Amino acid sequence: SPAGLQNDHKALMKQVEEALHQLHAREKEKHARDEAEALAEAMSQNQSLPQAFAKVNAVTPGSPASISGLQVDDEIVEFGSVNINNFQNLQNIATVVQHSEGRPLSVTVIRGGKKVHVGLTPKRWTGKGLLGCNIIPLQR
Length: 140
Prior knowledge:
The protein is α+β, with helices and mostly antiparallel strands. It is built from 3 helices and 6 strands; from the N terminus they run H-E-H-E-E-H-E-E-E. It has helices spanning 2-46, 64-68, 90-99, and strands at 54-59, 75-79, 82-83, 105-111, 114-120, 133-137. Strands 1, 2, 3, 4, 5 and 6 form a 6-stranded antiparallel beta sheet that branches. A hairpin with a 2-residue loop joins strand 2 and strand 3. The termini are far apart. One of its GO terms (cellular component) is cytoplasm. Residues 21-113 form the PDZ domain.
C-alpha cells in the first residue's frame, strides 16, 4: 500500500539524516584533533629542545671553530655522529674531529633557546688542535 511505502521512505530519510549527523560529528572531532596535534607540535618546537651533552666554554679568535660561527656558551646537541645517546666523554668528540680533518662536520647547538646548525671543518691552523675551541661535558 502507498502508506507503507511512505513510512519506509520516512524511516530511510531518518537513517540518512542520522548517518550524516554522525559523519559531521566525526569530522568535527577529527578537526579538533588535528588542531590539537598542530598546537602540540608548535609547543614542542618551542620548548623541548634536544638535550645538550656538552658546552663550548672557549673559542679562540681566528680558529676553525671561530670561523664556523661557534660561540662560547653554545650547548652542543650533535657533533657529527655524536649526540646525547652515544656520548660518553670528550674523547668521542676528539675522535670525530680527527676523522673529519678537512671535511665539514655538522654541529647542532642550542644558542639562546634556539637550535642553530653550524658547519665546522676541523683543520690545522696556527693554534693547537684542529678546532680552536674548548668543550666541556655537561653534568646530567
